[in-house]
Description:
With 151 residues, the chain is mostly helical. Helix content is 49%, strand content 9%. A two-stranded antiparallel sheet has the order 1-2. Strands 3-4 form a two-stranded antiparallel ribbon. The longest helix has 33 residues, at 116-148. The termini are far apart. The model has no long low-confidence stretch (mean pLDDT 83).
Amino acid sequence: MKSSLGVKGLQEIDNQLAALPKATSKAVMRRALKKELEPVASTANFFWPGADDTAFAVSSRLKQGQRAQSASVGAVTMYVGATRSAPHAHLLEFGTEPRFHKSGKGVGAVSPTPILLPSWDSHKDEILAGLAKTLREELQATIRRRASRGL
């Protein structure tokens, strides 16, 4: 499921990001998004039925074999998803149909136990509200670092 957040009215931040090199502005966006999405991963880890509290994390990359949605050239995309310690998380999140081995032996079905969607729903309003503030903070810190280096 893909969700897009549109933050409008942030022309000054957009102008400051445009003044930076492209790689630097994308790094600023990634840091801000990661900071804002961390509570979603933490909540999902809290509700994860296993003992592992690192089952979900924020990343800019998908796992091998997952297909990314096409995005515009300048877009920055971050994902909240299962880590290597929970490769079966999607089976719990969405459930399964009855499964059978090649021999015909039935191994049952898994009923859906949503973890990520409720975590996202409980934090999405905070993310949108906090993104502008976090972006400003990250942008100011980046500008200070660049100025101290004489860039």
